[in-house]
Amino acid sequence: MSLDSFKCRKTLKVGAKTYTYFSLKAAEKNGLKGISKLPYSLKVLLENLLRFEDGRSVTKADIQAIAKWVKNRGRDEKEIAFRPARVLMQDFTGVPAVVDLAAMRDAMKGLGKDPKKINPLAPVDLVIDHSVMVDFFANSKAFRNNVNLEYDRNGERYTFLKWGQGAFDNFRVVPPGTGICHQVNLEYLAKTVWTKTEKVKGKTVTYAYPDTLVGTDSHTTMVNGLAVLGWGVGGIEAEAAMLGQPISMLIPEVIGFRLDGKLPEGTTATDLVLTVTQMLRKKGVVGKFVEFYGPGLAHLSLEDMATIANMAPEYGATCGFFPINAETIGYLKGTARASAQVALVEKYAKAQDMFWTPKAPEPVFSDTLELNLATVVPSMAGPKRPQDRVELGNAAAGFAKVMADEFKKAEELGKRFKVENANFDVGHGDVVIAAITSCTNTSNPSVMIGAGLLARNAVKAGLSSKPWVKTSLAPGSQVVTEYLDSSGLQKDLDKIGFNLVGYGCTTCIGNSGPLPENISDSIRKNDLVAAAVLSGNRNFEGRVNPDVRANYLASPPLVVAYALAGSLNVDLTKDPIGHDRKGKPVYLKDIWPSAKDVAAFVRKNVTRKAYASRYKDVFKGDKHWRAIKVTKGMNYAWDQKSTYVANPPYFEGLSMTPAPVKDVEGARILGLFLDSITTDHISPAGDIKAASPAGKYLNSRGVEKIDFNSYGARRGHHEVMMRGTFANIRIKNQMVPGVEGGVTKFYPGGETMPIYDAAMKYAETGTPLVIFAGKEYGTGSSRDWAAKGTRLLGVRAVIAQSFERIHRSNLIGMGVVPLQFREGESWQTLGLKGDETVTIRGLAEGLKPRAAMVVDITRADGKKASAEVLCRIDTLDELDYYKNGGIMPYVLRNLAKAG
Predict the structure, then answer these.
(1) What GO terms are given for molecular function (predicted)?
(2) Between β-strands 254-260 and 9-14, what pairing exists: parallel, antiparallel or unpaired?
(3) C or N: which end of the chain has fewer Cβ atoms within 10 Å?
(4) 871 pLDDT above the threshold of 80
């Protein structure tokens, strides 16, 4: 029960029900002067603190610090404890999280304590959406065949998750074939205002409060478009939240993004979000909230807002928040939420001054930037970063420049090469994958209907996809299939190869499946720079497909357009996209659907009935899921033969008292990396190479190459994932210049070998390891294995110029210390080669958050150097996690001590 220092506990009657809530208006009258000027997102944080004020984890001073934000704009580094209402997971990150929970139960039992204590205290939803792969495509049986193969590949994982569904309280699983977690969250799970009923002094009280969450996927932020504050965290951080631990965070700066005007004809929400992403990346918003405001909000649909919110990880922000408004209420009604719930959302928001209207006073922000929607133009982003926007009219010229600058092949542009057993050839810039996929766009009916109408117009004009293009359609939910079927547009998409392949992230997460063998052979034989165009979030190197080196993000209609054109060398604003049956040129403008036509199709086919029907039995699953048999039990019966799920070593020899932290002495360097090393680079999710350490391990366990599946699917097995750490085919360790892939040099001696092999050799002699990197280390997905694998390889510290928020937190959560160079300094300014030894003192005694520390370097010739660094353990809670060897041992010990 809250201490309620500001006397703000009030009641709110909605219909026949009465709710207790913590009134911001009352709090302002009773001492928190000026909080009505706060950004809407900070009002959510403030309510959270008011509700959980206990004098210990949340103090009166913490609450007052939020009120002071109006003057300091978030520049005072004040730590607070945030308790989200719930946790969202997807299966790639969810499986290892449940593995950890199962391991914690075993560890609790080993300590002689009750394993029942390891149980989610906050509601957890896990949506299985990352496992389906595009093996079959462009035919009517593709969906059925891909699903059958998905269950064949993932039977062990799914059996484990189904066990968890029965073994843990407050834990629900949305089975495969339903949709992408963010879209299922947006369309069904999210409530915007959450409620909880409990006994208080013998009376039943129902609390109403903002719906908040953290998720084990960075794109948890999609639901910010529905005014639900949430962001991605690592699996280890999510586990702590599940087990009742607050999320430790600094009160953020909030960047206000003002929107004016409305989108012009011919542009899409995707064009808008790529523009926003480029602007915010340039602004620099890492670790900050972004909140959208201004009159332009009135001209965006809720789905447009969700599209923008979903890309927060790409523009670097913690979240991209939209306040509750009329669109929120309309969307909740349109997606078949209960009328009582919709009424509560509206009344609660208005009571709390959290309801935005065009006439609402503008909040105070740390800083602002502005975009007139009328200036947005058709765009793409590539070839390897989401923020690298290029206008559609410059895409062909932009690719030519990429060929010259990135791939040094400008003179080869235009050359064609024979494809064996085919009546076509391929060349540089040919689009070999065109995929409508991922949460950013498939949640937005306007772009999905737009893609369908463009396909219809293309079919009428006699156009077809080029034969070298692998086409696929992976909707974010079954509702998309419902409205594409009811409108008849799916038939048109089918005719040009965009058949349903599955419900999941597919191509965007690296599950694009193999290209046809003859096309793959031609690409490799001729060292072609082949391309993919996908309606996804991410286009990082090596992510989409091992045969594809240039990846471009685009709207679903443009994905269809590039499947028809077949090449990035075609300027779609000027060149014909193809020729009709009479040989007459057809241009993109001839088949592009009007905004009026798209809107009419959306109004007619995207119905409340479709949502009610498709989400009626969302947890039931298909016949495959229902057929899975599991053994019930408090503790999981680990199968020693499994290569998917294994009991991890994190808790081996765990005692109630943590061992003292030691300084790092005489460490060797495992890698020297440049800027923008992503979590994909550190812990790939896609293909497992047969010659890689992970491939060799699986082969030694009797797994054939055809059954390797992907790294993402095997995240529940630490032996596979350790070997996959730093194993991305495109990662470049500067210790081995000019070489791509996860290799390093082992010292002394300087022998080149896989990073895993070197780490194990160092482990034999008890040699600690460090990593050096540049700016934005850990950009990308909230991939916990990027931190877990780093720790299991024996890395004690990562020393970089800057860190992405989630990965920095995850490193600490695994007991690895992140250290940041001073401005203007780097491993390059130190002249490191990789053969040096490294000593870091100050960890063992007197360590404090954000302490200045010194890294001592001893070169191979015995000469010395040093660098002052900032310890990026930012809060006292993070310091406790680090001293315990990570967040999981910390939580486990606390739960064990509690009885």
Answers:
(1) 2-methylisocitrate dehydratase activity; 4 iron, 4 sulfur cluster binding; aconitate hydratase activity; metal ion binding; RNA binding
(2) unpaired
(3) C
(4) yes
